Amino acid sequence: MPTIVFASPKGGVGKSTAAVLLATELASHGGSVTMIDADPNRPLSQWASRPGKPQKLAVIATTTEESIIDTIEKAAQMTQFVIVDLEGTASMMAGYAMSRADLVIIPAQGSHLDATEAVKAIKLVKGQEKAFQKKIPFAILFTRTSAAIRPRTLQSIEAEFAQNRVPMFGCQIHEREAYRALFAFGGTLAGLDPEQVANLPAARLNAQMFAGEVIETLKASAPVKQRKEAV
Ligand SMILES: Nc1ncnc2c1ncn2[C@@H]1O[C@H](COP(=O)(O)OP(=O)(O)OP(=O)(O)O)[C@@H](O)[C@H]1O
Ligand SMILES: [Mg+2]
């Protein structure tokens, strides 16, 4: 079953946030999900320790590069989706996780610094494709963007990526208080109190659209046999 890896050597670009948004969306639609917390800071394990985690979503932690592949393979046999959240550094762990990915999502904020780091992540994907002699689909996910404006810098980065045929998600994860609240209170967006958290419906719609696009991307990049089975 599909393994989705969130990776970027840059810290704080929204990997863990986007990973939890995706996992909780998939679980709320009945999917069984294992999240692998491969970050020694354990952001996912902390989130999971708070109330409200969907039952169909399990979080397991792994620390060693030796164990990451086995952990992914075992989880892929147990649940419909495996989501791996990596630490914000370039590491062997990231390379190994990518080697088992059906999709690598590379979050980046709309700055040139982030774009440069995203390119490093793409190079790592390409290196793993060569090493493991397999195609590893990937896409950039712009995060923490404004829902209201599309700044010039972001536009120029998007244009540059498009020119170089770098795949990008059409959907972006906007800057939302609700996404911070998710980590403060635990659980899902549906479980947050609309009286306490601003713009919850917009945050939920954004997360739904992101999860929908991930599913579409997985379907489009699956081998033909798998695609037929999924129909
Ligand atoms: N879309 C968003 N809206 C609002 N806040 C966000 C959003 N994405 C991330 N943040 C906040 O930015 C900070 C970093 O986000 P996050 O932990 O998801 O990034 P990361 O890439 O996983 O970081 P690291 O590399 O340290 O693992 C957190 O405080 C998080 O709450
Ligand atoms: Mg993180």
Task: Explain how this protein is built.
By secondary structure, the chain is of the alpha/beta class. It has one domain (3-230): Rossmann fold (3-Layer(aba) Sandwich), CATH 3.40.50. It contains nine helices and seven strands; from the N terminus they run βαβαβαβαβαβαβααα. The chain has helices at residues 15-28, 43-49, 65-78, 92-99, 112-132, 152-163, 177-185, 200-221, 224-230, and strands at residues 3-6, 33-38, 57-61, 81-86, 103-108, 138-145, 173-174. The protein has a seven-stranded parallel β-sheet with strand order 3-2-4-1-5-6-7, sandwiched between helices. The mean pLDDT is 94. The structure holds adenosine-5'-triphosphate (ATP) and magnesium ion.
Summary keywords:
single chain, 231 residues, Rossmann fold, seven-stranded parallel beta sheet, globular, binds adenosine-5'-triphosphate, binds magnesium ion
